[in-house]
Design brief:
This protein has one domain. About 25% of the residues lie in helices and about 40% in strands. It is built from two helices and nine strands, in the order H-E-E-E-E-E-H-E-E-E-E. It is globular. The two termini are about 20 Å apart.
């Protein structure tokens, strides 16, 4: 896991502001290259690739998922984004799709 992604994701989950490299959070939203890739609403955390199915975006989204102890993981197969959880078949997702993380 990327240390920058981990530090910013941890601050996001704790509700703190932090900027490291190309990622930042105000405690309510997590931004990567200026795009919202995670946000909180009604005590729930949501994640999205924000239309960018790149290794960097997937790594940062997976960092948030890890910090909230979600069983979900995002990966790429045949240039398409997929979501998987332990014991379940992977499901192709849209890169603009918003997923409930916790």
């Amino acid at each position: 896991m990327n240390k920058s992604a981990q530090a910013v994701s941890r601050a996001f989950v704790r509700g703190e502001s932090k900027t490291v490299g190309n990622g930042s959070t105000n405690g309510d939203r997590l931004f990567l290259f200026g795009n919202t890739i995670a946000f909180k609403e009604d005590h729930r955390v949501f994640v999205t690739l924000a239309g960018w199915n790149t290794p960097t975006t997937r790594r940062w989204v997976n960092s948030v998922l890890s910090e909230v102890h979600s069983p979900l993981r995002i990966f790429c197969k045949d240039f398409e984004p997929y979501m998987e959880a332990a014991g379940l078949e992977p499901v192709m997702i849209d890169s603009d799709e918003v997923l409930l993380a916790n």
